[in-house]
TrEMBL record:
The keyword Lipoprotein applies. Pfam families: Lipoprotein_15 (PF03640). The keyword Lipoprotein applies. GO terms for biological process: alkane catabolic process. InterPro entries: Lipoprotein_repeat, SCO0930-like. NCBIfam families: SCO0930_lipo. Residues 198-229 are annotated as: Disordered. Residues 211-226 have a biased composition (Gly residues). This is Predicted lipoprotein with conserved Yx(FWY)xxD motif. Keywords: Lipoprotein.
Amino acid sequence: MIASEETAGSRRLGHRFPNGRRAGAAALAAAALLLTAACADRDRGAPAGSAVDLDTAYGVDGFAGEGYGDTGGGAAGDGADGGNSPAGQLALHEDPELGAVLTDGEGFTLYRFEEDGTDPAQSLCVGACASAWPPVSAADATVADGLDVSLLGEVIRQDGTSQLTVGGRPVYRYSQDALPGDVNGHGVGGTWYAVGPEGEPAGRARNAGLAGQGGQDGQDGQGGAGEAAAGAQATGAALSVVQDPVLGPIVADAQGRTLYRFTQDTAWPMVSHCTGACLDVWKPAAPVDAAGLDGVDPELISVLDRPDGTEQLAIDCWPVYWYTGDTSPGDTGGHNAQGMWFAVTPEGKKAPAA
């Protein structure tokens, strides 16, 4: 029986007690202090409760995310038009990974920002953010057959212009979408998502309807994938080390899925800043039995109690996730997404950004 030592919302696994008996209070206290010291000495990342760096989250530096459509795209002002331009006739585009995605009259993808207010509707994307994510004008917006016109509305922005809302959410284009149908903005910063038919984040209904592969919520996702590690496969070990041809040794779960760290999380106090719609793209890895590891030190394994009451695996005090865009064992499509998500090495460190 594996006993758990608890401190500040986390539990360190990997310590066994004879005959399943719990150690005395003094021993547990000492173990908790050791865990605290170990995690407190880590590279802590973003301060607890801090916001994501806005330039990166907004995509100002050109980070388009990986795994959904082509990365890159045009410079701001090219491709998806800026300047609060009219929406035209909204329609649905069938993306191979996300399913039905809402587009404007020219075929460019529309996006929602999870930080915006919804009751009442309010756009919090202004200044440099609005240059990267041009708001869509509500003027003359119509819908194609099959779409519900009652979902459309408007919100008055700080500059007095009128912005289109869909399902109560302000909608935007992404300056890095160079061509109609591009979805480069989906998942940027864990706060930007292509809009589905009813204003929801695109892909959510599809993800919920798919059978899971053993993830925390029993759900699996869709998306493009990076290059698979050589010989990668589902091993059955709770955690194993696979040799990626570019990244070197990285950690995979029992299904062969690459595990990732989020640089906006903190190692101590251990906090996950991936919440809300971020969890549609990045799934918290479920805790594992420390006895079922292959190549990973059990002393590095711990558990985070998430705010929703679920538990998440942590490696070297960092919460870890799997990426819904990885569709085959060994895929690394989430690596270096937005410069914030990185595959995890056996030591719990970030794999090289290459």
